[in-house]
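Summary for the steering committee. The consortium agreed at its last meeting that each partner would contribute one worked example illustrating the joint modelling workflow. Our contribution is presented below. We chose a case with several input lines so that the handling of multiple components could be demonstrated. No manual editing was applied between input and output; the record is shown as generated.
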Amino acid sequence: MFTFHLEGTDGGGRAGRLVLPHGIVETPAFMPVGTHGAVRGLHPAEVQEAGATIILGNTYHLHLRPGEQVIEALGGLHRFTTWPGPMLTDSGGFQVFSLEGLRRIEEGGVEFVSHIDGSTRVLTPESSMEIQWALGADVAMAFDHVVPGQAPHALATEGMERTLRWLARGRDRHAELAAESAPRQTLWPIVQGGTHADLRARSLEGTLALGPWTGIAIGGLSVGEPKPVMHEVLERLGPGLPEDRPRYLMGVGFPDDLVEGIARGVDLFDCVAATRNGRHGSAWTTGGKVNVRKAGHRRLDEPLDPECDCATCRRFSVGYLRHLFVAGEMLGMRLVSLHNIRFLIRLAADARRAIEEHRFTAWRRAWHARSHARGDA
RNA sequence: GGUGGGGUGACCGAGUGGCUAAUGGUAGCAGACUGUAAAUCUGCCGGGCUCUGCCCUACGUAGGUUCGAAUCCUACCCCCACCA
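What follows is the complete predicted structure of the assembly.
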């Protein structure tokens, strides 16, 4: 349980197999985000059919609504949502970042003003573990302090050091909870440190000292810093990361980010962009980014991406998708969300195959050539 | 036929002498979105140009008053309500 087998490496990329209580995750893999216990707009069967092996839930949001006690009473997050495979819950640490005007950070924990009813909610490293334990995902994440990408050294230091102190507390609480029952959930730490090389190094060192861990996450990236900076952080971190543990780059990314992350040794990704952009009518395709709503698509009788095997592309024309968006039909948002998650899942699977077949560098080069041809960033 | 109300940019609808190419909203067009406070947000939205500005056209139609009119006056056309 909670084991990771590195099955092959090539051109910086890693092909692996992560074994979790609810199933196996072949890596590299993209994990769709289901904040409220649902990948927004999609039926679990659709998410499965798109090839997802593991999805996320969110501690903060599920704590607010419906509350972990309710989910526990209904059999835990898996039974509640009917998602049969592995799940991972984010700790609420990202909400410390994203809900910045609605929270106050103290050493003990973070006080949030609920955006739902204005009530005060406190999340601590310990309570985040208790909530996640009650939710019962395969993987729980440490409660961290995420700072913006432009954070100066002092602030990044504060967030990084606090993340380490909170990690020790969360680890201890999680161990207490886990000691009371059969193993069912593992806890992964999160490396912070912003864009500062020295802080990232210290964060990694401190994190490993608090281990052992069954996996390790890299947080605080794609939060406003330039892309080359993110790449550099990953490159510097790589050599220090245990080879036999999965590496999870949190909150990333766009298609190019997956390719570049994989090339720098990342095994797991998650990102809301697939579903959010999908709801907003923006699709990733092998031909580049497509704005489904564009007027020029009115009479386009072709699939979004002729190379895509998703349920949307197999059946519907862009002309129809555009109509759904213009008419405000929710089906349009669902169909493009579905396409986008399939696109990222297939991208990761293609990369995996290329690594297994030792042609990852060429595969990556070909990807960028196409990327360049279509003028993507 | 009479009386009263009204005709504003694709649509709805503010504006009642200068700060008005004309508030808002809708529709339309384009863009953004990275561990989801997001089915959200931003920009453009009469035409033209030698485009940090200039010119033309525009508030039912035609004329008038005024330095200046979508705003005041006259006539006409059309719409609505009520009365005959």
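Residues 103 and 112 of chain A are 4 Å apart (CA to CA). The first strand of chain A starts at residue 3 and ends at 10.
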